[in-house]
Amino acid sequence: MRLIDDYARGGTEMAADTVWALEAHLETCAICRGRLAASVATEAPGTAALVDSVRAALGPQLDTAVRMPSRRYRPSRLPAWTTSVTVPWLAMTVIVTVLALLLAAAGAPTAAGGVAPALLIAPVLPLCGVAAAWSRALDPAYELTASTPRAGLPLLLRRTTVVLAVVLPALLVEGWLTGAMTAAQWLLPSLAFTSTALALGSVVGVTRAAAGLAAAWCAVVAAPAWGAGRVPVVLRPDQLPLWGALLVLGTGAVIARRRAYSLL
To answer: Is residue 74 scored above 50 in pLDDT?
Structure first.
């Protein structure tokens, strides 16, 4: 009860993690929400009066604006996992995958000495969507989303899951159709890059981390391998243990810095 009273007075003396835990609890506990309403009325009468005045002013407008949804309308579950602005980025990623498939079908790997274009971009292709998963510039509701108790790492992981669920199957289908690359060559590197981008994102921001890793890969590995016409050394089967270690380290760093994502 003391925590609720302190929160009702503004919570200025409460620790940030305590505020986060309390707000997360209030989302699911109707009893504590009732206690908070009673506490606001006694501990912060000015706030209670302000809320009442706003409710009185907005009530008639809300009653006029609200319309019952059509019976045929079914709310999509997609917004709970991603944002509408992520969809164009996912579509662009799929288009890039299709273009790589067309290049492979047109004989581009032969001209490049046997290295498939898709193989060179597959490890970093999910980063295009990850870069948009938690971006202030690309999310029109960023301020509203960032202020919720469940923002931060849980929301970022859900949006990253959407990206992987779209990109990885597209790459698997391309590899199956062309036979130019196997999942063992790119799947583990792709997951390792994703976890590394999230880990670095806790320091420099997810968008910057994803863009920087993708640019570094293209400049240091993909472009030289394409020019030489051979599969890069880092994508050979004997390098998979190193990619596995990078995946584990990235995942560990994300878990260790999980609280930093609420401040991005």
So the answer is: no
